[in-house]
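Sample entry (166 residues):
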Amino acid sequence: MAPVAAPTHVPTHHDHAHDHGPDHELARSRRPAWLAPAAVGVGVGLASLYTAWQDPNTSSGLFPQCPLREVTGFDCPGCGGLRAAHSLLHGDLLGAFDHNVVVTLLLPVLFVVWLRWMLGSLGVQVPRVPTIPKPAWVAFAAAVIAFAVVRNVEGVALFEYLHSTT
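Predicted structure, serialized as tokens:
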């Protein structure tokens, strides 16, 4: 009988840290496809209920202050977003636009994106949406940056409207 060579490397738990194996993949495939979009929907729904119940225009509630605004006094592109959401949840579209026009326009888009995700995970055929070309994404980013700058310009009536203050 030939002698058995000693292993040159003894496996450790570090060797398989990223190799979850077939059992992990099987367990993952057993999760319903709708679980992730449903969890996101529940989380956003609860946050929306809290935002509708607590008024971010007052100091009550657990709403965070914008760190950029606290340090510099300037509005970031998201400043006023919670107040805009609160206004939308109360049916006040003009109030939402007054707090943050970008967030007011993006919230319905994000809802449609989530709804497509949810319906698709349930096996519902959703219409195919054309791919958004890269230049359109660049234009969107430029528009958000322009919004961030313009909303902080003082002395111009139209730009004053874009400030996040009440």
